[in-house]
């Protein structure tokens, strides 16, 4: 009898273990490609997932050389597609860490005052750029870039990429 009770407790304990990570998402997700945009050999993706409650989480994951240092790469969500010169920043994303080439950001109110839900992000006319540095001459070096939403299906042409503005 003791073995039966112990067995049931073990099974019940295993059954009650759930993946807390999956419980924070609704299951709605879209992924956009980030393309190599300079001599630095990086590519990546931007995954946008809807959180329970309606907020959006943007995960940038790059592929390329990693570093053991504390270096980070500045990343932005911009209005307009990547060919538009001085496209205003829509939202400052968390920097990509050179150690794991990853950034996770909860998207909040954009600089124009709007908040996007999951359906709206798919129709958003914007792009993401990841910069080598937050300022100075290396700010103009874009590691990866890619359109999100409305223009995401356009072919990426590095020669058409514009340097983005820092205006909010």
UniProtKB/TrEMBL annotation:
Domain of life of the source: Bacteria
Protein name: Uncharacterized protein
Source species of the chain: Algoriphagus faecimaris
């Amino acid at each position: 009898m003791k073995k039966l009770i112990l067995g049931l407790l073990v099974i019940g304990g295993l059954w009650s273990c759930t993946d807390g990570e999956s419980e924070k998402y609704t299951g709605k997700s879209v992924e956009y490609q980030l393309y190599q945009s300079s001599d630095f050999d990086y590519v990546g993706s931007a995954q946008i997932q809807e959180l329970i409650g309606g907020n959006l989480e943007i995960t940038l994951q790059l592929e390329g050389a990693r570093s053991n240092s504390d270096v980070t790469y500045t990343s932005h969500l911009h209005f307009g597609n990547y060919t538009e010169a001085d496209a205003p920043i829509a939202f400052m994303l968390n920097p990509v860490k050179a150690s794991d080439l990853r950034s996770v950001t909860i998207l909040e109110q954009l600089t124009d005052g709007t908040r996007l839900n999951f359906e709206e992000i798919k129709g958003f006319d914007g792009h993401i750029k990841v910069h080598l540095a937050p300022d100075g001459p290396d700010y103009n070096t874009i590691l990866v870039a890619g359109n999100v939403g409305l223009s995401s299906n356009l072919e990426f042409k590095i020669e058409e990429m514009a340097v983005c503005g820092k205006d909010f």
